[in-house]
Design a protein that fits this description.
Helices cover 0% and strands 51% of the residues. The chain has 119 residues and is mainly β. The strands form 2 sheets. Strands 2, 4, 5, 6, 9, 10 and 11 form a 7-stranded mixed beta sheet that branches. Strands 1-3-8-7 form a 4-stranded antiparallel beta sheet, with no helix packed on it. It contains no helices and 11 strands. Strand 7 and strand 8 form a beta hairpin.
């Protein structure tokens, strides 16, 4: 059974940092790309960052230079280091397997982790 467990969110002031973690299970982790997505109330999940099986990364324009995605295949984990946080980064953050910039397991979102950035 596919499962994603996200953690690491919290309340920070603008300019602060957080490191999110996601542990995946029920997925052939090392052979798949993964992404971090975020969602605000009433909106669809927005892709934030993707990391390929080979470690290549890509980011949505609004987080380039501030966020860094990484992975640890031995731990079946994906991370998102978020620096210079802005109030507009406030959202619930999720991870999922990614293909072409889209989440694969849309019926298996985790509980997410809330990130709140105060101005």
């Amino acid at each position: 059974q596919v499962q994603f467990v996200e953690s690491g969110g919290g309340l920070v002031q603008a300019g602060g940092s957080l490191r999110l973690s996601c542990v995946a299970s029920g997925v052939d982790f090392s052979n798949n790309h993964f992404g971090w997505y975020r969602q605000t109330p009433g909106q669809q999940h927005e892709l934030v960052a993707v990391i390929t099986t080979g470690g290549l990364t890509s980011y949505t324009d609004s987080v380039k230079g501030r966020f860094t995605i990484s992975r640890d295949n031995a731990e079946s984990s994906v991370y998102l280091q978020m620096n210079s946080l802005k109030p507009e980064d406030t959202a619930v953050y999720y991870c999922n397997r990614d293909i072409g910039g889209r989440p694969v397991y849309i019926g298996h979102w985790g509980q997410g982790t809330q990130v709140t950035v105060s101005s």
